Amino acid sequence: MKKTEVERSDIVATLVQALKPLDSIHAVWEGGAASFNRVDEWSDIDLYVVCDDEHVEDTFVIMEQTLGTISEIELKFRLPEPTWHGHSQAFWRLKNASPFLFLDIAVMKKSSQDKFLQYHIHGRPLVHFDKIGIVKDDPIDRADYFQRIKARLDTLKTNFELFQVLVLKELNRGNDIEALSYYLSYTYRPLVELLRIKHCPWHHRFFTTYIYYEMPSEIVSRLHHLYFIANAEALRKCREEAAMWFWETVKGIDYEQMRRKIFESEE
What we know:
Layout: H1 8-19, E1 25-30, E2 45-51, H2 56-67, E3 73-78, E4 88-94, E5 103-109, H3 119-122, E6 126-130, H4 142-173, H5 176-199, H6 211-214, H7 217-227, H8 232-252, H9 255-264
InterPro entries: NT_sf (IPR043519)
Protein name: Polymerase nucleotidyl transferase domain-containing protein
């Protein structure tokens, strides 16, 4: 008889026990919150599985059959391929588990080059098994990364200056929903990325993910104010405030300090 409530440890252990004996499976590890030691009751399960190139579909079949031994599968979604990251990925929600415990599993071919193992960016993986020593930090060319961030800053500055009128024209037209959408895309999002470049450059592409853990509390509080907007009048004021903050931050960027954060930081 199946348990009425399946825990995180049950789900992970069951999958690991099914996959580890298979010759075609080489490694399984957890990423996401587990990589940053932040797992709580709201965390989903981010798993990475490395298999022989020709066994990707077999691996998905085995995992789904295995999950079915501990719970009915309530929902499933497989990303259409090719995926943006080049790996095969699927999501499952189990009927007998908390909905927060949905599974996000990427199956990677052994031959694939990028396995999200840059520890500075993706955190240190929680390894369940690694038969061939594949799970190790993939070194980042820090000089190249620094130059790419500098180039990204130039792009942010140009696009910010160019696209603010998209917010303003829809406010002027009384199209408040469109104005808010443009504000979030062309004002708020680049502001957050700029602040992340300044404070935590390794995660500048993460948008709001982890900002409560990685950004100064006063910055988060101010961003909170600029996100939760009551009406069109407040939106116009918040856009002005965000724009002032953006250009003040641009002027205050210290490239030498940023270079030190990149070159001297530990994982």
